[in-house]
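ESCALATION

Customer reports they have been waiting on this structure for their group meeting. Please prioritize. Original submission:
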Amino acid sequence: MADDENAWELDEMRLRIKQLEHENTQLQQLLAQHVGRDVAHQALVSGSGIGGETRFVAVLFVDLVGSTTAVSTMRPAEVVAMLNTFFELVIRVVERHGGFVNKFVGDEALVIFGAPAYRADATTSALTAARELVAELEAIPGIQVGIGVSAGTVLAGNIGSAERFEYTVIGDPVNEAARLTELAKKQPGSILASSYAVDFSGDGEQALWETGELVKLRGRNKLTRLAWPRAN
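Update from on-call: job pushed to the front of the queue and completed.
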């Protein structure tokens, strides 16, 4: 009788362990969906807390063109479907090149290469992803974008309070990429990068870009030399 009870208790324990493992896997997947796999992994391995570190990264902004007008003429369900199609493609291309979609803000996405996971080829990956994004988005009717790519040193880490914080990056490259995106919306190729970012990319990627004039971007005192993909 005692042996039967022990066997039953052992089976119950094994079942409970399997249930806990399943719940733990679900929680990890849910966390990764909300904050990204790299940030989720970092939090699970090292813990989380307020603070940051300086990192050299490439920053990519991608923003829909004319979305405000489109939203005013579309039903809510159509707007959601359009945005989901757009963001699904952005995530797919970015993750293909080892980038991290830091956040969605309305109809734009902020993407980081080189944080939280270090990448020696951060600028190469960002520039390649930018070109592929435009090429793949061209196949989706009604979607046009502007993309800006910058590179440099940022503060990367958890920003906020002990009760609520998020992983993000802060620094001039973020501002520069956002301003380049504004200009890119008016360019035939839909992409603009800083020549500094191109200079830090691999030789193969550099050969696909050409540089142009120096411009003063809104909100910045330092001049930026523009770069864009060479025409095929």
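Sent to customer with the following note: The domain at 48-229 is CATH 3.30.70.1230 (Alpha-Beta Plaits).
Escalation resolved.
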